[in-house]
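Running co-folding for NDP.
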Amino acid sequence: MSDFKNKNILVIGGSRGIGAAIVKRFASEGAAVKFTYAASVDAAKTLADKTGAEAIHSDATDLQALVQTVRDAGPVDVLVVNAGVVMFGDPLELDAAEVERMIDLNIKAPYFAAVEAARTMPDGGRILVIGSVNADRVPFTGLAAYGMTKSALQGMARGLARDFGHRSITVNIIQPGPTDTDMNPADGPMTELMHSVMALKQHGTADEVAGLAAYLASKEARGITGAMHTIDGGFGA
Ligand code: NDP
């Protein structure tokens, strides 16, 4: 029997890519899923129609709106914070306002969403954040700011795991490597370079990441917390 039947699950950033695969996975296992989106109105509507999940328009860089969205959706049994952006470029040239925006989305949004969800989350709940293997390994130039945002999640997870552990709430980070989505298409211009540092010369799929999310949210994973779970084809090996 599925662990997720009638569980309330909220995915922050679920309209496309890894987030959409997570929405589909939990919805297919009988969960009541809500997901947020910012720009992809059509994709969000199509996904909601297909899965029965509820699409909520909420830009996660607006931290007040994000907290209100999490409050309104609660109490949630499982929170997944997936929304994120990547910026490549010479740090001497990157637009500072864009870097700030990435910090808001990749660091501040997961923290404030997790804290807000935990206020009403039942004992035994699950908090999952999609980080990146770039938290552990940055083998190319131009990724310092992105790597910084994903590394920050590690300290957050370790700390929140201890803060909420007495309620049996687990807090984990999933760290994908190259995964075939709009952000990082398997046929994109960076593929050869990325595969050159991987043990497996292939992109992962969003469904594979969703499978790991489902495991970490399951009853079987109740003893796993404050930990990073890398699924990267050996990018970090
Ligand atoms: P995509 O760009 O394909 O999808 C991003 C998702 O996040 C979309 O649903 C998008 O919704 C949502 N999102 C983006 N900005 C916001 C916002 N301001 N508010 C709400 N939702 C938002 O990315 P991926 O699926 O590839 O990436 C998902 C996560 O995985 C990210 O955190 C990324 O850093 C991480 N990751 C991805 C890797 C990869 O190779 N693909 C590798 C390592 C980590 P909308 O379009 O509606 O705004």
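Result summary
The first strand starts at residue 8 and ends at 12.
Strands lie at 8-12, 32-37, 54-57, 78-81, 126-130, 170-176, 227-231.
Job closed.
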